[in-house]
Amino acid sequence: MRIALAADAHGGTLWPLGEEARRVGDLARAVHDLERDVRPRWIWADTRAVYPALIERDVRVARCHDLTLTESLLLAYEGRYGEPRSAQAAHARLRGLPVPADETGPHAVQDTLFEPEPVEIDLAAVYADQLRRVAATEDPARFRLLVAAESAGALVAAEMGHDGMPWREDLHDQLLSELLGPKPVRGMRPAKLQALADQVGAAFGTAVNPDSPQQLVKAFKMAGLTVTSTRSHVLKQVDHPAVGPLLAYKELARLYSSHGWAWAQQWVRGHRLRPEYVAGGVVSGRWATSGGGALQIPKVMRRAVVADEGWRLVVADAAQLEPRVLAAMAGDRGLARAAGEIDLYAALAQAFGGARENAKIAMLSAMYGGTSGDAAKLLAVMRQRFPLAYAFVEDAAKAGEDGRLVRSWLGRTCPPPSAHWLKLVSGPEGGRAARDRGRFTRNFVVQATAAEWALTLMALLRGLLPAPARLVFFQHDEVMVHCPEDLVNEVSAGVSRAAEEATRLLFGETPVRIPMEAVAVACYADAK
DNA sequence: AAGGCCTATAAC
DNA sequence: TTCGGTTATAGGCCTT
Fold first, then answer.
1. Which nucleotide is nearest to A370 (CA to C1')?
2. Which residue is nearest to nucleotide B9 (CA to C1')?
3. C-alpha–C-alpha distance, residues A444 and A34, integer Å
4. Are A246 and A216 contacting, i.e. CB atoms less than 8 angstroms apart?
5. A265-319+452-527 has which fold?
6. Domain residue ranges in chain A
C-alpha cells in the first residue's frame, strides 16, 4: 500500500493511492496507526521537511519515497542536471505552470515549514510521473533500488540527526584542556596555542599571526627563505626554527577552531552530538553535513564518544570498499577473486611483484587517476593482469574527457560539463581541463557505487536492528550502532548480514565479498 | 558590515 | 611535463 502525505500547519492530508484524500488533524497519530496496521510506503515531497516532526512525536516509518531526492536523481539521469528538483517544481512542469526555483541557503527547509504551500501539489501525479520515468531508464530494477536506498537514507539521516551520537562533554573538555590549556575567555587564544604563537614570533624576531599565510610567507622571505605555500607538508621541508612551533600550532589551532568549545556549545546537547546530515548532499551520493562537521571529526576526539552506562557502540567499516566495488562492477574475474579475500591488497600482491603496497598504489591510481611515483609502471601491470577492471575506469575517464556523462552501477549520473569547461577544453589549456574531468568521472563511477552500496547496507541494517538499538553514526563506509550490552551479538550479526545482502542486492551472484566486521566497544577510540 | 574568494586541514 | 577523488569549516583578506 502506498499513501501520499502532505503536512500543513493544522495537521495534514493523507491520500492512499487510488482512494479519496482525507484530512487529519493529528498527522503523527494517523501515521503511527497506519504504520502499525498496514506499513505503507509513504510518498512525500521532502523527508527533511516532513519527517522530523513525526520523529519528534516518536513516530518512525519503515519506508518512504522522497519525491525531491528522486526528482534529483531522475533529472540528472535524463541530462537535465540543475533544473529545479522540488516536488513543487516537478508538479509545475507536469501542469505547464511556471517552475519555481529551488529554495537554497542554510534555512531553506525550516523556512518552508512555516509557509503555506503556494499551490496544492498533486503528489500522486508527481509520483506516477516519476515511476514512468524510472521505468524508462536503461535498467529500471537498479534505478528502483537506487530510489529506495536514497529515500531510506533520508529517513536514517533524519533519525540520526534526532537521536545523536553519544558524546561526553566532560571528556571532550578534558581533552581540549590537555592539548590546548584551559578554556580561554572570549577572544583569547588558549594558553598553549598562544605560547606556540609566541615561539613562532620569537623565531622570526617579530610578531607574526600564524593564522595568516600572507604574513608567514613574508616572514620567511625576510629570513631569506622562499616558500610556495604554508601547507604543513611544504613547511616540513624548510629548515628554520619557526617551523617546529608553527606546525604544532597549526595542528592544535585546527582542533580549537573546528571542534573546540564553541563547536561543542553549538552542536552537543545532553550527551549527544546532533549534526544535520544531508542525504544525497554530494554529487557522488555520499552524505554531507550542513552543520556540526560530523563527517570530519578529528580522530583524537573519538575519546569523547562513549556509550551510555550498560550500553555499547557497535562499530563496523567496510575495508577496501572501493576496489571491491570496482571488481564487482567490471566483472573482472581475477580482481573479483582477490576481492573474495579479507585483505584484497595482500591477495593482489603477487601480481604486483610481491609487494602489497604496490598493489594498493596500483588500485588507488586506477580509481583516482594518480600518475605520480611508480603509478604508471604499476598501472601497466594492472592493464595486463586485470584488463576488465582497467578498461572499466579508463572508459569512465575517456567519457569524462570527451564531455560525456557517466553513471554509477544503479544509475546515479554525474553532472554534465559546465559552460566554463566547454570553453576551456577548446582552448590552449584544453588538455589539462579534459584530464581533470577525466579524473573526476573515473572516480565518480567507483565512489558513487560505493556510496550506494553503503546506503543499501544502512537501509537493510535499519530494518534488522532490534529495539532499542539505534544507528547513531555513518561516515561513508562506516556505521555505528548504540545498543544495550546484551544486544551486541544480535547487532553485530545484523551488520554482517546487511553487508552480505547489500552485496547480493546490488551485484547478484559474484565472488566479490564486502565483509563488515563489527567490534563492540565502550569508547569509539578503542574501535581500531 | 557583509559577502565572496583563498588557503589550510579534518574526514572518507 | 606533474598534476589522486569527494567534501565542511574557519580565519584571513579583499571588495562592495
1. C4
2. A254
3. 40
4. yes
5. Alpha-Beta Plaits (3.30.70)
6. 2-136, 169-262, 265-319+452-527, 321-407+416-444
Give yes or no for CB of A258 within 7 Å of strand B. Answer: yes
Q: Which three cell numbers stand for residue A30?
A: 494517523
Nucleotide of closest approach to A361 (CA, C1'): C4
Single-letter code of the amino acid located at A170: D
CATH number assigned to the domain covering A169-262: 1.20.1060.10
A231 CB less than 7 Å from any atom of strand B: yes
Beta-carbon contacts of residue A67 (< 8 Å; ≥ 6 apart): A43, A44, A45, A46, A87, A90, A123, A126, A127, A130
CA A330/CA A287 separation, integer angstroms = 25
Query: Residue A299 CB closer than 7 angstroms to strand B?
Result: yes
How far apart are the C-alpha atoms of A379 and A212, rounded to whole Å?
40
Contact of A271 with A145, CB cutoff 8 Å = no
Q: Is the CB of A229 under 7 A from strand B?
A: yes
Residue-wise pLDDT tens digits, A267-293: 998 999 998 888 888 889 999 888 788
Q: Which residues pair with A4 in a beta bridge?
A: A15, A43
Mean pLDDT over A20-49 rounds to 96
Check: CB of residue A46 under 8 Å from CB of residue A61. Answer: no
Radius of gyration of chain A (CA): 26
Cell of A431: 588538455
DSSP string, A367-418: HHT--STTHHHHHHHHHHHSHHHHHHHHHHHHHHHTT---B-SS--BPPPPP
Return d(Cα A236, Cα A304) in angstroms, integer: 30
Name the residue type at position A484. P
User: Phi and psi for A230 in degrees, rounded to 5?
Assistant: -110, 25
**Given a cut of 70, is residue A75 above it in pLDDT?**
yes
Q: What's the pLDDT tens digit per position in A195-236?
A: 999 999 999 998 899 998 888 998 998 899 888 888 888 888
Measured distance CA(A41)–CA(A189) in Å, rounded: 52
All 3 cell numbers of residue A479? 556505521
Q: Residue A435, Cα to own-chain centre: how many angstroms?
A: 25
Q: What is the tens place of the pLDDT at every residue in A321-344?
A: 999 999 999 999 999 999 999 999
